[in-house]
Amino acid sequence: MTIPRHVTQNQQRPPRAASAGMDDGFLMEVCVDSVESAVNAERGGAGRIELCAGLVEGGTTPSMGLLQVVKQCVRVPVFVMIRPRGGDFLYSDREVEVMKADIRLAKLHGADGLVFGALTEDGRIDTELCTALLAVCRPLPVTFHRAFDMVHDPQVALETLISLGFERVLTSGCDSSALEGLSLIKKLAEQAKGRIVVVPGGGITERNLQRILEGSSASEFHCSARSARDSGMKFRNPNVAMGASFSAPEYSVKVADVAKVRTLNAIAKNIL
């Protein structure tokens, strides 16, 4: 297979154990949408990668080609987002079939874990659908993603996730960012009592990580740690854009920043 640019031959390596990144009592998960970002996240000290497409929409299912090449290039565990589209988390029967097919393919191509979420129309955890999807995911560990932040009653929803057998839940505390939702994240972690890992995520940066970790007692956290990199294109057509008006600039690429990941890693180590 042709190795993508920005990735050298010696960066291809076998996977590491799922406990990678926990040696210091914490784990940093970095969400990425490219091989370059995955390699940078690992170089910076990430203990786990959440692999997505469409981060501008909050993350959707990545291509299996991306998963396959990322698995060749990093050793840390790679958890794969299963989300067939942006928008809400109320799925049709056909979308469910897509999710099941994507789970099977992700397992086939070496996923170390899966990430999904599904709600009912009244803002509760869709237990029937989650049960069916979890059965397809096993024996891999599964995280319930930030669909949790859209639930009607987060404390009831947490108990539902525990009873279903999810290993983790990613949350901003049902607010615009993990910092804004910090009080609820702390309550959820106390309620969980080790039965599920509550992972703060959403707007985490080097400026607020210390406050979030100290205020939540979290042992894991989730971030993107990205910065913009200018496109390598020399010829540019300013009159055409490939996406809608809210999409990212055509000639700027956001990638995980090694320096930012290292800084976040150092902050967490100092606290925990």
Properties at a glance:
272 residues; alpha/beta; eight-stranded parallel sheet; 10 strands; globular; disordered N terminus
Plain-language structure description:
- The chain has 272 residues and is α/β, with parallel strands linked by helices.
- It is 33% helix and 16% strand.
- The chain is built from 8 helices and 10 strands.
- The chain has helices at 35-44, 64-73, 93-108, 127-137, 154-164, 182-192, 209-216, 258-271, and strands at 27-32, 48-51, 78-81, 113-116, 142-144, 168-171, 197-200, 220-223, 226-230, 252-256.
- It has an 8-stranded parallel β-sheet.
- Helix 1 (35-44) links the parallel strand 1 (27-32) and strand 2 (48-51).
- Helix 1 runs parallel beside helix 8 and helix 7 packs parallel to helix 8 (258-271).
- The longest helix is centred in the middle third of the chain and has 16 residues, at 93-108.
- The chain is globular, with a radius of gyration of 18 Å.
- It starts with 26 loop residues before the first strand and ends with a helix.
- Mean pLDDT is 90; it is low at 1-21.
